[in-house]
Specification:
Layout (H helix, E strand, L loop, with lengths): L1 H21 L30 H12 L2 E6 L2 E6 L2 H10 L30 H14 L2 H6 L1 H21 L5 H18 L10 H17 L3 H4 L11 H26 L9 H10 L7 H12 L4
Antiparallel strand pairs: 1-2
Length: about 300
Amino acid sequence: MFLDLSIGLFFFFFWAFFYVLKLGPQKSGSGQLPPGPRPYPLIGNILELGARPHESLANLAKTYGPLMSLKLGTVTTIIVSSSRAAKEVLHKNDQSFAHRTLLDVVRALDHHRSSVIWSDADSKWRNLRKICNTEIFSIQKLDASQDLRQKKIQELLDYVDQCCHTGQPVQIGRAAFTTALNLLSNSIFSSDLSSHASESSQEFKNVVWGIMEVAGRPNLADFFPALRSIDPQGLRRKMTHLFGKLIEIFDGITKKRIELGDGVARKRDVLDTLIELTKQEGSDFRRIDISHLFVHKVRFLH
């Protein structure tokens, strides 16, 4: 991580040198922005975040109020830090604030175009949200999957019992991840992705954790968008590799289901619903979007 950051800093200072050379007279900040600390040249208020940004932001809010503006590199950022202000932004004015700043790493393989969280609030996004609400998170679907949850928990207990009888150590993290992974995969495409006796769950877990690690690293390209084209820390390249592994798995499952054709009895699960959506006339939902939607779901298994 430190090597990546060092290389990134080298590219940053190299770019900053030329940025300063061509920097012309700047207009004063907009009077429409909320109050905030005075930014330093080039780096803005990055140093004021410190090692514990959440605590630093809480302390800054005591001085500048629940709605304040910071300059993170060259990016102006508005910080909302009270329930009342959050309600105004997220509830009363949600459409106005629907477009959020993209992390550069989620641009890998155009993942941001098929994500419920990152995509624009257009017709495609509304379809994705509707599918999630009706096919995955609805009360009816959760009630209907009660037997499935009990079955997977029983499989977990059987695995622990087997380990006790054979004297094998129980890898708690791996066992819990396998259970959660199979619960999700059965809810979406009616089959297990792994088993407690297989090494595949650990490999899958490593990929998911790798995605969360890369997404959580400070990225110079997020603070200085002009650096995106060179990806100075290589984080987008790493995310492309990790996303690619998951997409290969999910697209293989989707392809196999499509090849079964209409002559085979449908399972009427989430995958079938998404496949039907791709076949609708005028639909902008593609097969690759199915894989990206599944990637979005498994990211929360860590």
